[in-house]
Design brief:
- The chain has one helix at residues 68-83; strands spanning 48-49, 55-56.
- A hairpin with a 5-residue loop joins strand 1 (48-49) and strand 2.
- The N and C termini lie far apart (39 Å).
- The chain is 19% helix and 5% strand.
- The chain has one domain (9-83).
- A two-stranded antiparallel ribbon has the order 1-2.
- It has 1 helix and 2 strands.
- It is mainly α.
- The protein is globular, with a radius of gyration of 14 Å.
- Bound molecules: iron/sulfur cluster.
- Iron/sulfur cluster (SF4) binds at residues 34, 36-37, 43-47, 57, 60, 62-63.
Length: 86
């Protein structure tokens, strides 16, 4: 079975590739905006914080690498838990 839903690439995007990577052929645009940002320090990515405490993801390529789909999906249970009605 094919797994085309896990990978999409838009080389016509004016920002492609929006992060520097070794292999552009493997650059995954599926998660253009990372759905894990709201997880704060639990996203599993390579983030820093600015002096003002803003989460900075500019050095993180996790949502664009091979295995991005699997990583994001592994965190969706946590996203759903945080987002549920309280
Ligand atoms: S881009 Fe990286 S550091 Fe930022 S939220 Fe997503 S996984 Fe975490």
């Amino acid at each position: 079975m094919s797994e085309n839903y896990k990978f999409v690439q838009n080389r016509k995007c004016e920002y492609f590739p929006c992060h520097k990577v070794k292999n552009e052929d493997e650059f995954n645009c599926l998660f253009c905006f990372c759905p894990l940002y709201m997880l704060g320090d639990k996203c599993g990515g390579n983030f820093t914080y600015t002096e003002k405490g803003i989460k900075n993801c500019s050095e993180c390529t996790l949502p664009h690498c091979k295995g991005a789909y699997e990583h994001v999906m592994s965190k969706m249970k946590l996203v759903m838990e945080i987002s549920r009605e309280k």
